[in-house]
Amino acid sequence: MNNKRRDLIKKMTVSQQFVTQAEDNAKMDKVRRYAPLILLVIMTAIGGISQKNFFSWANIVNIMFQMSIPLVISVGLSFVLLLGSIDLSIEGNMGFAGSLVAFLVVNNSNSNNFGIFGVLIAILIGLAVGTVVGFLHTKGRIASFIVSYAVGCIMTGAAVLIYRGTPIQVKDPMFIAISQGRLFGIPYITLISFAVFIIGAIIMNYTAFGRAVFAIGDNEAAAASTGINITRTKIKVYALCGCTAAIAGVLQCMRLKLGQSNLGLNQMFPVVTAIVLGGGSVSGGKGGSLQTFVGVLIYTELANWLTLMGVDTNLKKVIQGIIIIIAVTLTVEHNRKTVVK
Amino acid sequence: MGEVLFETKGVGKTYGSNTVLHDIDMKIHSGEVIGLIGENGAGKSTLMKLISGVETPSMGEMFYMGKPYVATSIINANKQGIGMVFQEQSLVANLTVAQNIYLGREKKYSKAGLVNWAEMNKDAKKALERVDIKLEPGKKVRDIDMATREMVEIAKVLDVVTEAAEGHAIILLDEPTTVLSDDEIQEMYVQIRKMKAAGNGIVFISHHLDEILAITDTIYVFKDGEETAVFPTAEANIDVLYEKMVGRATTGEFYVEAQQSVPSDKVVLEVDDLSLFGVFNHISFKLHEGEVLGLAGLDGSGAEDVCNCLVGQVAPTEGRILIEGKEVRFGNSYQARKAGILSVPKDRRDEGMVSILSIEDNITISSWEHMKSKGLLSGKKIRQTALKWIKEAGIKCTGPKERISQLSGGNAQKVIFARVLESGCKVLILNHPTRGVDVGAKQEIYRLVREMTAAGHAIIVIGDTLDECLGLSSNVIVFRDGLISGSFDCPVDFKPSQQEVVHFMM
Hints:
The complex is a heterodimer of chains A (341) and B (506). Chain A is an all-alpha fold and 341 residues long.
C-alpha cells in the first residue's frame, strides 16, 4: 500500500474501509486467478527459446502423452480437492484396477477373456471402492485422509493377491491395439484421457452436482441452508474419484501391458501439486476444470523441459520442488479472514 | 396495515437450564415493517432463528396465515414463505449470481442431468430486476461489490419466498445495512418499502436507531431475552426506547463497589491513535495502575477487536501501543504475554481452557518458565502453585490433578483467572469474564477483580452486560461503528446510568 492511498483510507469511515478492503482483495484475487496462466505462458516461452525442438510436433505429442494419466486422475481429484478433502486411495485403486483388468483379459497366466467387460468390471469396482470411501468418510465421520489411506492399503494388498506375486502380462489384442494405435500421431491412450477429462469438465460445469461441489467447498453451511444434500454429494465425489482412478489404472495397464499393484505408485501427489499450481486449493472451494488443465500442463511442461535440458534426475526433483513452492506461495490466498468476515 | 400474517404466542428458547428467550408475543401484519432493537444477547437473533427455521422453540406457539407454524429447517421455512437474509453473507463466491440464486433449486432447469444455464440466467435477471438491480446473472459473485452482493442475497430470498407466498411472505433482515454506504442504505429503504407495498411482512434488525426510526412501523424492544416494550414508530420516544433497552441497575454491593480502587496516576498501558482498517479507527486511551477500564459497545463496534490487537491476535494497521512508556509491537500472543498483556478469553471452552489438561497444568501453562528446576518442569512447584490458587480463588475441586473439564463454568473460569494472575502480567484483559457463570460464582469473580486492582494490576474489561461493565469499571469508553463515541468516569456511588451510556452505543 503506498502512502497516498494509505492516507486516503485513513480518512474513511470504518465501513468504507471495510468495503475498500474487500474490493482490494477481489482485485488481488483476480490477479491471482490469472497467475497460473501467466506462469504457463512464461514456462512455454522459456521452453521454446531454450530448446529448439520444444515446439516440434513430436515433443508436443510427447507432452500430451505424458500428461494423459495425470489428467485422468485429476478429474476425480479436482472434485475431492474442491470439497477441501483428500483421497489417498487413488494409488491403491489404480494398482488394483490395473491388476484386475490384466487378470480378466487375455493374459499369460490364465485363460480369461472378458475383453471390454473386463475393463468395465475394473472401472465399476473402482467406483464402488470410491463410494465406500465416501460413505465411511461422511456417515462414519472419519477424516478423509485416514479412511482413504486405509482403503488404499487394502486395495494395494488386494491387487497383489490377484496375481499372487508374479505380475500378469497382458496379451489381449484389444489392449495391444489401443496401446500402439495413433490418430494424427496422437496415441489412443492420450485421446481417451482427453475425452475422460472433457466429460469431467462437463460434469463440473453443467450439472447441479458440479455446482453443489463448489458451494460445499466454499461455504458448507450456506450450501446446507439451500437444501443441498451434502452427504450424498460428497459420496458421489468419492465415487467419481474412485472411477477415474480405476480408468487411470486400466490405461496405465494398457500402456505397460502389465498388471501389477505399483501401477499407481507416486501418481497422486504430483497431480495434487499440479491442481494447486493451476489455482486450486487444498482447503476447498477454489479451482475448476480449466485451472486443473493448466496446472497439469504446467507440471508436465516443466518436467519435459528439464528432461530436454538434460538435467540430472535428482537435480530435476530439487528444481521441481523449488518451483512448486514459489508458484504456490504466489498463488495462495494469504488473508482470507477479511474476505469472509 | 393489513391482516395479521404471522404471530408468536409466548415463544421462548432454552439451552439446558439457560433461558435465552422468554415469552415473546409478536404480530407481523401484512405491509408492516417491524424494527427489533436491544443490546447484545437481548434475544433478537434467537427469535429470528426460531422464525426462520434454524432452531425450534422450546415453548410457545407460532402461527402463519392463521395456521400453526412449524419450520424444521431454513428450506422448509422458505417453502412456506418465510425467508431470512443473514448477517454474514451466505453467497458462494465461486458461483455465478444466477447459480447462487437458484442453488439447491436447479431441478427446474435441468434436462438429462445437464443444467440449462441460459434459462436460469433469464429467470435470475427477473429476480434481480425485482430489486431494481441491473446485473449480468452470469457474473461470478466474487467479481461484484459488497453492496450488490447484499442485494443479490435479498433477491435470492425474495425469489424463494414469493414463489411460495406471493404477497404475504415474511422477510427477516438481520442487520442488512452494515456494509452499505448512506446512498446504498437509501436504496435498501426503497426496496423494503416495495416489499411492504406488495403486502409482505418485514422484520428489520439494526444497531442504528436512526435506521429503525426511518423505516419501521412498529418497534419491539428486547432486553435479556424478554420483550420490554412495543411502540408504533410514530409514537416512539428515543429516551423511552433507551430506557426499555437497559435493565434495572443492580446494587453496587453486587459488584463489590466498596472495594473499587482509585486508579493511580501511573500509566501502565497507552493506546495511541490505533486503527485496524475496516474495523476501528483512531482509538486512544490510557490505562492506569489499579484501574478497571470498561469497553462498552454493541457487536461489531470495534471494542473486542481493540482487545484482539492488544493481545497480539491481530496486528493493527496504524497507531502505537505503549507499555510503561515503551512502544511495543506484537506479532502473536506470546509476544504480548512477554510484554505483560494477557487475557481471559471470551470463549472459555474453545479459547480459555485446555480441556485435556489438569487444573494445575491449566493454572501454570502461562508461566512454565518459572516452574522449572534444573531445566525441567518441576511437578512440585506446579502443585504448590496450583494449591495456592485453589485456596486463594476458592476453586471447588477434588484436587490439582482433576481435569479442568470436570469443573463447573464458574470454577473453570476461576482457574483461568488464576492462570493470568500467575503469569505475572501487569495488564489483564477480561473479555466477558462472567459469561456462562452462575450468580454466586459471578460475585466471587468480581471480588477477584477487586483484589487484582488492589494488587496494582491494570484491567480492561468487556462486560457481559452493560450493567456489569459500569459496575466493575472506574472508567468506561463507549464504542460505536469503530470509533470512540463517548467516555465516562465511573467512581463509586457516582456511576452513570445505563441510559446515558446506551445513547452513545446506538
